[in-house]
Write a structure and sequence with these properties.
The chain has 313 residues and is α/β, with parallel strands linked by helices. Helix content is 27%, strand content 17%. The protein has a single domain, classed as 3-Layer(aba) Sandwich (Arginase, Chain A), CATH 3.40.800.
Length: 313
């Protein structure tokens, strides 16, 4: 029988284990289809810190989520064996060592066939995860939802940080460039050509202003048609949302997506060969109400509902 979250009718939601949706915690990946993994880092950030507390807060807010998705008919825990694998034991003083630790950790998880869904943590973590994913699946398609393209060449002389992730991933051949979508980009830049490089690589760059006041199911349906059977990874930066919906993040930008748009976008990817995903940049010190972490927890649940083997009506 697959694991089920503890019901709020059996144990009050403000008690019980601090795991994602109060699922069982597993010591290892054996026997799991999906592993929820925390990566509590913020040493790759360039502005406001605090994302090291993101995984813990996302887990706390996830206690409100029930197992059946009333809107889509998805019941992921009836079809998949899911558990919380806890946090990667990062080195909080050394970003380079942390990046290596993350890759080694995910290498071990993927050997067991586990699909990882990651709670961040700053966006630096996506690079070492993609390195592991590419070892197993080759260059993958990518849906990257973010206010920022994260394609800088360096930050303060460092080649690996939260603003350089997707340049490094492109250079290392981890991505299928023509099947990469960067969605929700906006704000200010250093030059007028900030988005020119990824467009030149073949990335599909969609700025937030192109999406204002529009449903996003058309976009996600077109992405699904172009991706086909290609393995795809989803990287969701919470700052893709407007700060009105998600103020608790390190680098907020006005004019972002709404929460209904976020859900529409993800739901349109159902049926794809999703091999992993992450939700990054939740910063609880700037989230006093817990709303940002609550949104983040629900978006991770939406990703879970998309995975192969989960039915949606």
């Amino acid at each position: 029988m697959p694991n089920q979250p503890i019901s709020g009718n059996d144990l009050a939601r403000f008690s019980g284990p601090n795991t994602f949706m109060r699922l069982p915690q597993a010591d290892g990946p054996e026997g799991l289809d999906v592993g929820i993994i925390g990566v509590p880092i913020d040493i790759g950030t360039s502005w406001r810190s605090g994302t090291r507390f993101g995984p813990k807060q996302i887990r706390a807010e996830s206690a409100m989520i029930r197992p059946y998705n009333v809107q889509t008919g998805a019941a992921p825990f009836d079809h998949l064996q899911v558990a919380d694998l806890g946090d990667v034991p990062i080195n909080t003083f050394n970003l380079g060592k942390t990046i290596s630790i993350i890759t080694e950790y995910y290498d071990a998880m993927l050997k067991h066939g586990v699909t990882p869904l990651t709670l961040g943590g700053d966006h630096t973590l996506t690079l070492p995860i993609l390195r592991s994913i590419a070892k197993k699946h080759g260059p993958v398609a990518l849906v990257h939802v973010d206010a920022h393209a994260d394609v800088g060449d360096h930050m303060f002389g460092e080649k690996e940080a939260h603003g350089t992730v997707f340049r490094r991933a492109y250079e290392e051949g981890l991505l299928n460039p023509k099947k990469v979508w960067q969605i929700g980009l906006r704000g200010t830049g250093y030059t007028g050509g900030d988005f020119d490089d990824p467009k030149g690589w073949g990335f599909n760059v969609i700025q937030a202003r192109e999406l204002w006041h529009k449903p996003l199911n058309t976009l996600s349906n077109s992405i699904a048609a172009e991706v086909g059977a290609t393995p795809i990874y989803i990287s969701y930066d919470i700052d893709s949302l407007d700060p009105a919906y998600a103020p608790g993040t390190g680098t907020p930008e006005i004019g972002g997506l709404t929460t209904p748009q976020a859900m529409e976008l993800l739901r349109g990817l159902q049926g794809l060969n999703i091999v992993g995903g992450d939700l990054v940049e939740v910063s609880p010190p700037y989230d006093p109400s817990g709303n940002t972490a609550l949104v983040g927890a629900n978006l991770v649940y939406e990703m879970l509902c998309l995975l192969p083997g989960v039915g949606m009506r």
